Structures are given as structure tokens and as C-alpha cells.
Amino acid sequence: MIDMLTVITGPMFSGKSIELIRQVNRQKIAGKRVIVFKFSKDNRYSQTEASSYDGMSTWAIPVTTSEDIVARVEPDHEVVVIDEIQFFNDPVIELLLGYVQQGKEVIVAGLNLDFRAKPFFFHGGTRTMADLMVHADSIHALHAICTYKNGHICGLPATRTQRLRDGQPVSSDDPIVQIGSQESYEARCIRHHSVPQAKSV
Ligand SMILES: [Zn+2]
Q1: How far is the CA of 157 from the centre of ligand 1 (A)?
Q2: Are strands 157-158 and 144-145 parallel, antiparallel or unpaired?
Q3: Is the predicted pLDDT of residue 48 greater than 50, yes or no?
Q4: pTM: predicted TM-score of the whole model, two decimal places
């Protein structure tokens, strides 16, 4: 049986893009016609610049909305692949389920949780990875390694993404999406994931 919808999910540093590339390579070996997208806040970036941002190979087309995807997918594309799906808008869900109905294989990778360990809502919307996972034939739930240090590195499986500013955990009222700002991130296990409550005003 062919996996028509494959979802790769987990925190930052869990190898989602690497698994996505592995899946794409398998499809290419099989001779399938594959089209690969990655999210870009600014789709004027060249493909090379987009790839240096996170290491995705240069064949990923930088796009911003589901409309950008519609404009580029052709009838004879057999496999549609999208990295960083959580940054797209809600309509991308129905679009991808529609491709599956048409007989295309769909492979996506993205964050399940935001830095607070709450479901990561798609851009400006109400949908999450869960809306794809319920339809998935194959789910790869990846873990990173907790890099919390207290004399030594924790090293336990990490299911969460820790956001830090100046080395300290940011509070729960920090904006969800912070592209290109000065935050840093670490993978953390549940015990070492920290989100201080915002101070009440
Ligand atoms: Zn830990």
C-alpha cells in the first residue's frame, strides 16, 4: 500500500527536514515526479538563500501561501512535498487533502507544538498539525535530544522547543512566530522545558 499522506513532526532539532529529504530521495529513486516547497516569509529570496537558512536542498521552492503552491503544482506532479507546513495558512489543509483525493502522494514536515508546548496554529488560523495527522497514512513523530545543561547535558529525548532570550526562557506572552529575531532555541525534555507565566498587567 502507498502512503498517500505522510506527516513528519516533532520539535526543532529533531531532524524533520532530514527525514523529509530522505523521503524525497526515495521518491526520486522510484522515478516519481516530485515538487518540493519550503516556507519563506519573503519569497523574493533566491532558492540558494532559502536553502542556507535551514539546510534544505536547493530544489525546495520558497513559497508563502497555499495559493503559491496551487500556482506551481502541475497535473503530472505525482508527489507534493512541503517543509515547515505550520507557517502556511489554514486553506493548505484542504488543498493537500484534495491532492490526496486526486491520487497525488503528499509528504509534509512541521512543528506540532509552539515554544509554549501548545498546539502550533497555522498562520492566522485555527488549524494545526493534528488536522493533517488524523488523515495521515504514516506519521513520523521525531524526538530531539534535550540539551539542557546543569554540569552535564541532560541527553533525554526532547519533545519540546525551548525559546531563550539572553540565555533565559521567554515568558508565555512572547509572540508565537519570531522569524529573524534574536531569540535562540534549544530542544528540551518535558522536565527541562520552561515557560514562565507572563506578569499580569
Ligand atoms: Zn532534559
Answers
A1: 7
A2: antiparallel
A3: no
A4: 0.89
